[in-house]
Design a protein that fits this description.
single chain; 267 residues; alpha/beta; 2-enoyl-CoA Hydratase, Chain A, domain 1; four-stranded mixed beta sheet; 10 strands
């Protein structure tokens, strides 16, 4: 599609003035690699400049929304901290890109959203989830601090005690449970996801576009203030855990399909 030709890890489709963006690495559950991370970092600024788009639908190809960080990419950042420096800069651009974008973003949560995938989904404006989709910030399961924005958005949606439980234990919750807690707007059977998403988009299309945009801007003022106050510290803490023995053990355990033995060789 014109204006988005340079993107390689996502596809774009336009109907009327609605742009559907699909994360497109289905063979690895749309896991984020270096290329997708860099593209997410500029995506929302590009959409802001797109004069043909009023509403965005964000979804994933295949059976997942986004499985979080690609294991090889995470390993490269662990082995070379300079790689993580680039990740850190882009992580802020992703979060602030979503918060600064005035156009409403509807997340069609078609499947699992894990780690950064959960962060991106939860920073969308309206989230319609499949009941079968699972959501979780699993950073701690591989020995990383939740630094890419999860520590900001989860407490705002479900409160601090519940957010701490999910983020500190790396627990997953299904779509129905997420809707019950208020983590997402609604959870529907998978075969109803398209129709429900289209109905929500239709409501936004029929509304007063400027009023809707500026209402989003007003709501996001507090979130942006919070993000400005937290992102640098959160990313710094994640950078510390990126070079930890526990993170190396977490990556090794993931590759070897076993439970990690954290705490060994602690400095």
């Amino acid at each position: 599609m014109e204006g988005y030709e340079r993107y390689t890890t996502m596809t774009f489709a336009r109907e009327r003035r609605v742009l559907t963006v699909t994360l497109n690495r289905p063979d690895v559950l749309n896991a984020v690699n270096a290329a997708m991370h860099a593209e997410l970092a500029r995506l929302f600024n590009d959409i802001a400049a797109d004069r043909e788009t009023d509403i965005v639908v964000l979804t994933g190809a295949g059976r997942a929304f986004c499985a979080g960080g690609d294991i090889d990419w995470l390993q490269s950042a662990c082995d070379d901290p300079a790689v993580f420096e680039q990740i850190a800069a882009e992580a802020k651009q992703i979060v602030f890109g979503l918060l600064d974008l005035e156009k409403p973003v509807v997340c069609r949560l078609n499947g699992d959203a894990v780690g950064l995938g959960a962060t991106v989904a939860l920073f969308c404006d309206i989230i319609i989830a499949s009941e079968a989709a699972r959501i979780g910030d699993l950073h701690v399961n591989i020995g990383l601090s939740a630094g890419d924005g999860g520590a900001i958005i989860w407490p705002q949606l479900i409160g601090y005690p519940r957010a701490k439980e999910f983020l500190m234990t790396g627990r997953l919750i299904d779509g129905a449970g997420a809707a019950e807690l208020g983590l997402v707007n609604e959870a529907v059977p998978a075969d109803e996801l398209d129709a429900r998403t289209e109905r929500m988009v239709g409501k936004l299309e029929r509304g007063a576009a400027q009023a809707i945009r500026l209402t989003k801007v007003s709501i996001n003022v507090g979130l942006k203030q919070l993000a400005h106050g937290m992102m640098d510290a959160s990313i710094a803490y994640e950078s510390l855990t990126n070079i930890s023995a526990d993170h190396r053990e977490g990556l090794a355990a993931f590759r070897e399909r076993r439970k990690p033995a954290f705490g060994r060789g602690r400095e």
